[in-house]
Design goal:
The chain has 13 helices and 11 strands. The protein is α/β, with parallel strands linked by helices.
Amino acid sequence: MNQEDGIRRFSGASKYVLDEELAEIVNISIALEMPLLLKGEPGTGKTMLAHAITESLNMRLIVLNVKSSMKLIEALYQYDTLTRLNDSRFGDSTRDVSNIEEYIRMGKIGQAFVSDERVVLLIDEIDKADTDFQDDMLDILDQMQFDIIEIDKSIKARHRPIVVITSNAKKDLSDPFLGRCNFHHIAFPESDMMKNIVRVHFPDIDKELLNSAVQAFYRLREIKEIEKKPATRELINWIRALRADPDFRVKDLIKGNIPYLGVLFKKSPDYFMAQKVVAHFKV
């Protein structure tokens, strides 16, 4: 962590390989107190970036996993009417049934607002939500407050969280939403960058294994018929599997004998297509 003019700066983390452009947009977003919107295909490290910021700046991470059916109020707070009803019926609770506030539970955004320290708030896969959810959420994040109507109380953020928003670009976000965020597209790593990422996870990896595994991985990603291409996570797990197999030999990989395709491909059509294509790799 670097510090400049009282502003803590993000400079990467132990398991996250950071390029200069991404570091700059993270730090300017922190300085300007603007949400950072990250787009890119699954497996490019969007979610992991929030974890890396948390580690680097020694802050707590709160994660809001957006669902297609989610209403914004769920991310703010929930009024637990069922528990209150049960308490009133059975009378064996230490809670004061007449005090509705005792039955208010903060959602993820609410938790970030009432936290005693500044936190990183990750809003993951915002493109799953409808447009009203997206725009209304950014209104809340702009104002840094929301109302709990059941108790006529306004919740104001004690500290403005560092907001990271991810999108898999499955559907377009509204112009007002985009206008309120800083933006960065995380492209899938090139081969050399991927080797650096692998070395972070396996510092002692054999050079021949590294080169052969990465080459085979990118060759498999080029199969046009594949629906869900293997991502960085799959590559890391695949190399872990190769290293754990006492019978594995790098020379077999070089010859096109690619084991453990089930670690790389998680959908049956992709798996069978990869098997078919790999059969033609072998020499």
